[in-house]
């Protein structure tokens, strides 16, 4: 790929905090009407509601399926329960791989709509299951839908959003996923696991109906040479009084510099740097332990002597999670991405360290030494007043962990993936990120189960504590601040390796 050297003046050769040059006039931006944009985002993130709902479906369901009163055809032992919790991640891997093809083949919007097919079928099988294999198949299919939405929805939202609201709207997938999880916890308090499956199919159907009336991504339409459709879609998203010419020209300039990606071009910084950042962020996000904690939340709480039943504590954690992502949405375009990532890493580190120490020091009841000769770790605390107070600490620490994750490494990882990936490779690279993410999640869920069974919660929580330190270091060294930058300016940062500013000379050269 031939790249035209960028001509920048000395003032442009500054760090990330440098005010942008050549901004569009404020009068153009003041005519934006975001109401239809919000409708399009709402329609898309219903898929994330289903994702959040299906991700934690095992949390209230496993205690029922492992109880002595469960149907013998469906009853699960610890090994089968581990597969029921982790097979969702394998489905998400398959969904991410499918999205790598579908995102560029049929587009972001249709890829999101296609996710409703495995989601609906999976919930039908779960609701009508009469054997364990049906439970695993249904869980796998809902995982496929989750992987497809995880790879497609953030990209769609990023490409249709204006830069002034992209941070807040980029948090919406995580917010609705959290709301989906909270809805599952709430419904799990009053309905059986079969009716939970029936309820889970409804949001996906509503998503398809609404998305039928929403526009495709203007960036994708321009990349296909459909200028009139792109202009119409952008005008619908920005309002009838918005001047679409400048934004469309910036998008077209960015597309013109890329063309079709070849293997040799992947070795250039504009491609490999953002892809590596996105992949590593998704890997670290999972290695913090968020997925096994959410999947086995009630099981984890049941190992502690806590004031409330485990299922009520799980629902309470869901409320905290929703509150924290709402805070992140408000602060995303004010405090910036990196400030929230720093805060998130520190909160997760402190809470994981606390849980590590609690798990390691909790006393064991009298009894024989474990067969492998290791120290027995039983997390049941005695019922005297002091220990009941101590029993609250694991719940509070878990809430802090979820709060920290959900205000930083949860939503921002999704947002940055859709922001920094170059347009020419965005569809495939987002699928790659999701695939890596859920392969890591599957591995971690399996490892978590075996480590907890063999050594107790001390070892996995110690691992999560170390990973939180790595998250802090990675944020400081590798992640750029993208607040207030257009997608084209972010691409320019990786192209030049030094500045977000798109100089007037470069813009003119591309349009001539």
Secondary structure: helix percent: 55-70%
Distance between the termini: 18 Å
What integer is the average pLDDT? 78
Biggest sheet overview:
none
Which stretches are low in confidence, meaning pLDDT under 50 for 5 or more residues running? 1-30, 362-386, 504-512
- Indicate the proportion of strand residues: under 5%
Overall 3D shape:
globular
Number of beta strands: 0
Summarize the structure in short:
With 512 residues, this protein is mainly alpha-helical. The chain has helices spanning 26-29, 35-55, 58-65, 78-105, 108-114, 116-127, 132-160, 166-170, 172-188, 193-200, 202-211, 218-223, 227-238, 245-256, 269-287, 290-295, 297-302, 310-331, 337-361, 385-406, 411-420, 426-455, 458-478, 487-496, 504-511. Helix 6 runs antiparallel to helix 10, helix 6 (116-127) runs antiparallel to helix 11 and helix 15 packs antiparallel against helix 23.
Characterization of this structure:
- The chain is an all-alpha fold and 512 residues long.
- It is built from 25 helices and no strands.
- Helix 4 (78-105) packs antiparallel against helix 5 (108-114), helix 4 (78-105) packs antiparallel against helix 22 and helix 7 crosses helix 22.
- Mean pLDDT is 78; it is low at 1-30, 362-386 and 504-512.
